[in-house]
Design goal:
It is a single chain. About 35% of the residues lie in helices and about 20% in strands. It is α/β, with parallel strands linked by helices and about 210 residues long. The protein has one domain. It has a six-stranded mixed beta sheet. It comes from Achromobacter sp. HNDS-1. Keywords: Signal. This is Lipoprotein.
């Protein structure tokens, strides 16, 4: 527990250095966030077909009981800026929605997959986006974004990116991870074959 708390403290103390947790808009033509790190197959652990029904709503789920507001705002703003989903909501916003629709007796908890599955039965299917970042020691960090089908509990997409915090984490870690997510929603993730071909012809184009 102490190691976990120290990791959180270090992560957010470093957020003040360089560019970390500062949302930007994606490139208008490509839809990708500006970064110097291209998305590769090594960043992708799971990639099932994107269901257009997910566009209805994205629910952001965080592992911490009290996630840092800056961390939450960064990912909520970034995913809204993708303009893929009609709504991008957090627990703080979904609970009043449940009360407004008078679903309290049918959906008593939105902190776990079971409660979110019950919610999907009432409002239609949506995508659960679970975002986490971990300190790996020294200045090394790893961030993971997992997208889960609320109606089945199945992981449909998962991406992990590691980075060394030399001058912030947005460019080397968060934006490449978000770009992998963007490409998944567009069915344009790079294949291992395409990456091998690129390696022989030159670096991939980067959104700027």
């Amino acid at each position: 527990m102490l190691r976990h708390l120290l990791a959180i403290a270090l992560f957010f103390s470093l957020a003040g250095c360089g560019t970390t947790l500062k949302p930007v808009k994606p490139n208008a033509q490509t839809g990708l966030f500006p970064t110097t790190v291209a998305v590769t197959p090594s960043h992708i652990q799971v990639a099932e077909p994107f269901n257009p029904a997910y566009r209805h709503m994205a629910f952001l789920k965080f592992n911490a009981d009290r996630p840092n507001p800056q961390f939450v705002a960064y990912f909520q703003t970034s995913i809204k800026n993708m303009e893929v989903f009609e709504q991008v909501v957090t627990k703080a916003e979904i609970e009043p929605m449940i009360i407004e629709k008078q679903l309290q007796e049918k959906v008593t908890n939105v902190s776990d997959l079971l409660g979110l599955n019950l919610l999907s039965k009432q409002i239609g299917n949506f995508l659960i986006i679970d975002v986490d970042s971990q300190w790996k020691g020294s200045y090394n960090f790893e961030s993971t974004l997992q997208a889960i089908d609320a109606s089945t509990g199945k992981t449909m997409f998962k991406s992990s990116v590691q980075a060394f915090n030399w001058d912030g984490l947005d460019v080397p870690m968060f934006r490449p991870m978000l770009n992998a997510f963007v490409l998944w929603t567009k069915d344009k993730l790079p294949s291992a074959q395409a990456s091998a071909a690129t390696a022989t012809t030159g670096p991939a184009a980067i959104s700027r």
